Amino acid sequence: MSDIFWEEKFEETSEEDFKKELEEIDNDVQEIQYEDENTIELEGVESTGLVVIWFFTIIWCSASLFGTIMIGSSIIADIGTGNWEPADGVIKNSGVSSSSDGEGGTTYCLHVSYEYTVDGQNYGGNRVSYSSENSCNSWSQNADDDYPEGEKITVYYDPGDPSESVLEPGLSGVNFFMCCFFIFPLVGLFLLFISINSTTSYFKGR
After folding, report:
1. 123-157: pLDDT as tens digits
2. What's the half-sphere exposure (Cβ side, CA atoms, 13 Å) at 138?
């Protein structure tokens, strides 16, 4: 065969190979574009999820911090009454008020007023303890039975300010049911850990 025949064959083969290579390159480019689009969509979903997680975490932690400060201050105040001085007193009035919620439940609130004498001067008070002040529940329907009107009692007053007093000093006055609230700050710490861990993983994976 002549050299011209082989040259034509070589040119035909080279042209076919070149077209195949162009098609392969085009397919690769399309696959890369598709992967990039999916990556962008995935990153958008992940970033939106992080925003939602952080928003919920901040709201939860803020509310828990506020509640912890309010409840914790009352408990600390109760513990601080452990060294208050005793004085003779008498119950002037006691009672339980009730209120109903929309679900048919009833809440009871104890109200007590008493008088006591310190160094010949009369004082009045209405606080059983700091943590039980304005504390109502659904099982204290007969709470006033512990403080019948006219009963002589021991009142504990602040030596620095005798007008400040309680009936239940120290740990005996702590409303331990309120301590159940402290589970909410623990949940907040758990959410904060998840948020930080998710954010770190997100930026490491970019």
Report:
1. 999 998 888 776 666 556 666 778 888 999 999 99
2. 6
